[in-house]
Design goal:
Layout (H helix, E strand, L loop, with lengths): L18 E7 L5 E7 L1 H10 L3 E4 L4 E4 L8 E8 L6 E7 L14 E4 L2 E4 L7 H5 L2
Parallel strand pairs: 1-6
Antiparallel strand pairs: 1-2, 3-4, 5-6, 7-8
The protein binds zinc ion (ZN).
Zinc ion (ZN) binds next to loops.
Length: about 130
């Protein structure tokens, strides 16, 4: 396979400078979570080799795992065809979800209601309120 260097990475002129970033487990392929990156978060991700997002609620960079220790080590960083969505293949420490689940997508929607389809890996109270 040949690789052609692209002139630029994600296009942060789109979507008010915030692009969706999806974290996928590099081993299982499971989708772990989706959050937002601005240009600075993206640059920090590239620089540190760990997922760094932009927190819209706190309005600042969010170094994933800074509180919980549940860091995401990036094995591969991809952009989509439009260069406005980021995909990271990661090695996840602990739980990706702040509610203590491996993946944020632990709720299944069915005709008869919602099902929790995963087991909690950690108790969020113990991780965040120490
Ligand atoms: Zn979550």
């Amino acid at each position: 396979m040949t690789t052609t260097p692209h002139e630029s990475g994600p296009d942060f002129s789109r979507n008010n400078g915030l692009l969706p970033a999806i974290a996928q487990d590099a081993g299982s392929g499971k989708v772990l979570m989706m959050a937002w990156m601005n240009a600075e978060a993206y640059q920090e991700t590239v620089r540190t080799g760990r997922a760094v997002y932009f927190s819209r609620s706190r309005n600042k960079l969010w170094y994933k795992g800074e509180e919980s220790g549940h860091v995401q080590t990036v094995e591969q960083l991809l952009v989509d065809c439009d260069r406005d969505t980021i995909l990271m293949k990661v090695r996840q420490q602990g739980a990706a979800c702040h509610e203590g689940y491996e993946s944020c997508f632990f709720t299944e929607v069915t005709e008869s209601g919602l099902n929790i389809i995963e087991k909690q890996l950690v108790d969020p109270d113990e991780v965040y309120n120490k």
